[in-house]
Amino acid sequence: MDFRGRELWIGIGIVAAVLAVLAGILGFAIGRGHGGAARPLVCLDPGHGGRDTGARENGVAEKDVNLDIALRAKQLLEAMGYRVIMTRENDTYVSLAQRCAIANQAGATVFVSIHNNARPPDAAGTTTYHNFNSPNGERLATYIQWGVVARIKRPDRGVKEKNLYVLRNSAMPAALLEGVFLTDATDARLIAQAQFRQKMAEGVAAGARDYLNSR
Asked: How far apart are CA 171 and CA 178, in angstroms?
C-alpha cells in the first residue's frame, strides 16, 4: 500500500472513531434530560391479556381496551419527553409477577396499571387504587384519577387503598386505574369508542406527568 493509500485508511479510521463517539453521546443524551438527569421512566401495565381476558361484558373484552388505552398513553407520554416501558404490547399473557419484575428490573420511576371494572351491574364510573401505607402511591393515584375523570366525565368513585399484587410488589409508586364498568351499558358503549379511549389515555398521561412534576 502506498503512502496515499495509508493516509486514506487512517482518515477513514478517524472518521469512524468520531462517529462512534458521537453515537455514544447521542445514545446517552436520549436517556437524559436537561442538566444530565435521567428522564423519568413510566411503566404502563395493560391489565390481563392472552388467555386472561379480564371482564367480558356488553360485547367488550377488557384485555383489548386496556391495551389500546395503554398504547395511546405511551404515545402521549413519549411526546411529552418521558421514557416508557410496557408490560405487554400485544395480546399476550403476562403473569402478575412478571409485570412487577419488568418494572422493578428497569428501575421505573412510576408504575401505572390500566384496567376496567365489572360488577356490580348498577355501578358506573372511575376508581384508582394505591397500596396501603404508600403516600407517593396515593399521590400518583390521585393525579391519575383527576386526569381521567376530568376528561371522560364519568362518575368519580374516588381514590382507594387496596391490597393488589402489582401495587404491593412494585418497588416504585404504583397506581391501578379502573376506568369504567363494562357491566354498565353506558360505560361499555362509551369505551367501545376510540375517541373515548383516547380521552382516558390522555387522562393517564396527564396524571403521570402531573405526579412527576410535583416531586
From this structure: 21
